[in-house]
Amino acid sequence: MAWSDYLVFVDESGDHGLDKIDPQYPVFVLLFCLVEKTAYASTICSELQRFKYEFFGRDTVILHEYDIRKGLFQSSRMPACGIVS
């Protein structure tokens, strides 16, 4: 069996149920991201780790959409990302 040259990342945000829509967050998003394995290993991992060390002082931080959207990651070292709640 041959291995693929790509990685697929899949994530969702919001509520997929249409019977009760949250007026504070009335969306459902399904995202697929296709990344070449060589780019992931050579660039993406190291840049994400560099970002985490620069702004959080450690690389164990997990970046959740909710925390970013609510501004929980903002600090004097990190510019506002322009996301409004």
Description:
The chain is of the alpha+beta class. It has 2 helices and 2 strands; from the N terminus they run ββαα. It has helices spanning 37-56, 65-69; strands at residues 6-14, 28-36. The chain has a two-stranded antiparallel ribbon. The longest helix is centred in the middle third of the chain and has 20 residues, at 37-56. The protein is flat, with a radius of gyration of 17 Å. Residues 81-85 have low confidence and may be disordered.
Key descriptive features of the protein:
85 residues, alpha+beta, two-stranded antiparallel ribbon, 2 strands, disordered C terminus
Topology:
Blueprint: E1 6-14, E2 28-36, H1 37-56, H2 65-69
Antiparallel strand pairs: 1-2
